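Folding Task

Wanted — backbone structure
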Amino acid sequence: MDQVNAVTSLHESPHDERRSRMVKYSAAMGVRLVCIGLCFVTPGAWLLVPAAGAVLLPYLAVVAANQVTQRGNTAQAYAPSQIVRYDSSAN
C-alpha cells in the first residue's frame, strides 16, 4: 500500500463552500451598487463604463457563485489489484 488517504484530502464542507460562494456574490453585488452610484455622477460617454458594470455584474456574479470548487485531493482511494484467499491450512 504505497498511497495513504488522509482526512485532509477531503473536499470542503458544503457549509463552508456555500458561505464562500455567498461572499463572492455579495462582493460582486456591492461593486454593482458602486457602479449604479457612479452612473449618477459620471459625465458624457464615460457613463457607459459604470452602466455596463451595473448591467453585466449580476450575470457574472451568478455564474461565479455557481462555480463549485474541488479543493480536495483528486487522488482515488487505494484499491487492491487482486484479492488473495487466506488458506489457514498452509501454515
Observations:
- Helices lie at 14-41, 48-65.
